[in-house]
Design goal:
This protein is an alpha+beta fold and about 170 residues long. The protein is about 35% helix and about 10% strand. The chain has a two-stranded antiparallel ribbon with strand order 1-2. A two-stranded antiparallel ribbon has the order 3-4. Helix 1 packs across helix 4. The radius of gyration is 19 Å and the shape is flat. The protein starts with 20 loop residues before the first helix and ends with a helix. The mean pLDDT is about 85.
Length: about 170
């Protein structure tokens, strides 16, 4: 990211569809301002060991996401996989709960009727050999401007970015 107060023009500053250069600048500034909260949210997600198999801490991770969405004004619903289906859907999951979180935000009467849908997953692949890790896999440590840990590339970072985008709609007045 570049500092939004910079006067440098970039080719990406050109209007996007019906956005003006001023609106794009507003979005960039709001995004820059939200970056610390987004990093904190990502760190909270990464620190939850959701390695699959077996899939521990899924409920806690879903509740972290749901709680964040609730604070942003979304109606949140948790969908639990029925326990009798767990052996079929998650055979190596040791019977641990599988939880999906859905956040909905009603539009306004003047809204276009369009829907924005974002999704992701918060399970992470096994860490392999711990000694091969330079930084703790669930530490969410930042070194040289990069966060390290399971989920920082796939896909807890995607969830954090999506939540950042929807929270940005409150900050960027377009």
């Amino acid at each position: 990211l570049t500092n939004p107060s910079s006067t440098m023009q970039h080719s990406s500053d050109a209007p996007l569809d019906n956005l003006t250069i001023g609106q794009v600048a507003s979005i960039r500034k709001a995004t820059w301002d939200l970056l610390p909260k987004c990093k904190d949210f990502l760190a909270s997600l990464v620190k939850l060991d959701t390695t699959n198999p077996p899939g521990r801490h899924y409920t806690e991770c879903a509740e972290l996401i749901g709680g964040t969405l609730t604070r942003l004004g979304y109606r949140v619903e948790y969908i639990k996989v029925p326990t009798d289906e767990l052996p079929i859907l998650a055979p190596k999951g040791e019977g641990l709960p599988r939880v999906n979180v859905i956040g909905r935000l009603d539009g306004t009467e003047s809204a276009s009727g369009k829907t924005l849908h974002a999704n992701g997953h918060f399970d992470a692949v096994p860490i392999g050999t711990l000694e091969n890790w330079k930084y703790p896999p669930f530490g969410a440590e930042i070194h040289n401007g990069r966060m390290y840990g399971r989920g920082t590339a796939d896909q807890k970072s995607g969830i954090a970015a999506q939540v950042g985008v929807i929270s940005n709609r409150h900050s960027a007045r377009c």
